[in-house]
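Lab notebook, bench 4. The sequencing result for the construct came back, and we need a structural model before the next group meeting so we can plan mutations. Quick request posted to the team channel:

Model the 3D structure of this chain.
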Amino acid sequence: MNRSNTAAPSSTTISLHDFWARERHQILALTLITLLAAALRFYQIGAWSFWSDEWFTVSGLEDGFNYNWLRQSLASTLVQAWVAHKGITEANARFFPALIGALTIPVFYMAIRRLLTPRIALLSALLLAVSPWHLFWSQNARFYTLLLLFFTLAWVCFHIGYEEKSNGFLLLSALFLALATRESLLALLLIPCVLLYVVMHWVGENRNLSLRTDLRLLLLLPLLGVALLFAWPYVSNLSDWMEGFGFANNTPFRFAASVAFYLNVPIVVLALVGSAHGIVTQRPIALWLSLIAFMPVLLLTLLTPFHYVANRYAFITLTSWIVLAAAALDSMATALQTDKQRRLLLLGLIALPVVQAMSDNALYFREQHGNRSDWRSGMAVIAEQAQPTDHIFSSDFKLASYYLDRPSGPIQALQLAALPESPVPVWLAVDATVAEAFPEVEAWFGRNGRLIDSFDVHVTGRSYPMRIYRYVPPDS
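Done. Here's the predicted structure in token form:
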């Protein structure tokens, strides 16, 4: 072979490889990524108003099913204990979700490094740190960041335990699934992924479905026990559940499209590439990640014509999509690292999802009021202008009463036909619930009353309205 035609690796390539191979450099990179994540999650944490679901958590209301302490959300318990100690403010209520969101980054890195490589783990940590979806739920007094953490640890431990024949990791998987399911029944979507993966594993190895040939299946029984423990209150009160959630609020296309939007389209595209590449090269971890990413979204999409389904239900899949995307970037790095121009292309590919995410984050902080309705500003207008005897109605009268520091009424109690006979002026606060579920009420106030002020928040694909109307009866 003519040595002049053999391309030797450049010193830059070698130095970059050596950089990522050194543990102290990995620790430095992880520290910087974690600090970035913490800065994003705690920045302006108290700037946004509460919204209905947050107030449900803060006020400690029961959901009608999980009165047992064993089934109560740990995240909600932490939020309620903290505000009881420090006082009810937006920043106090969101402290623990933000802290959990920031701490998820190093835990996620260590978990993915155990499964794959330090470089993929660092890329995954970076993509999660800047993820607008993860940032949003880290700044919400809800359980979703803790749910995602436990759910991720459950599927990581299952894959390690199953592939390495480690009973300890399989039991850890069942434990983390139990903790995740304690946050939300959505975690049970892991079970069909596990069952399908085991079946596909057997088929791939031409094995018989027999406990004798694979005793590890016995360790899946705790998963079924967890499912029964947490699902039983809902199954035993199915009529109550269906009364509250047994209606379609979405369409399959709208749900799938909104999930892709919140995941971030560059992440989705890269994840699809990573999934295809991993499956073609017959890597078991690629099949497992693909199941965790795709199956819950598919099952929820199929459920949309019959049941209430929100895009946040697919949040549990975020980390699997991110790892698939990071694996795709890592494969591209291996293919492009031998040429300077190709390395520039690689930097552009890595920068694309990061820049896209940070652009969305900038809008979130500067223009979009944290992607939620501005209850605080709307109620401030009413508090300033309304008389003590005026009537005030909204979709969440308890949240409105908190910001008004006075009682208000639920919109369900509003009788439009009787309003002309009201002895006092009537105020209406229109948020997303009123706009979607009671459009006739807003239309009536628009015709007969006056729009006092508007604080609508617009994001791609949807709006978070907050409009204040005032109606003055003729004889008031």
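Residues 375-471 form one domain.
Will bring this to the meeting.
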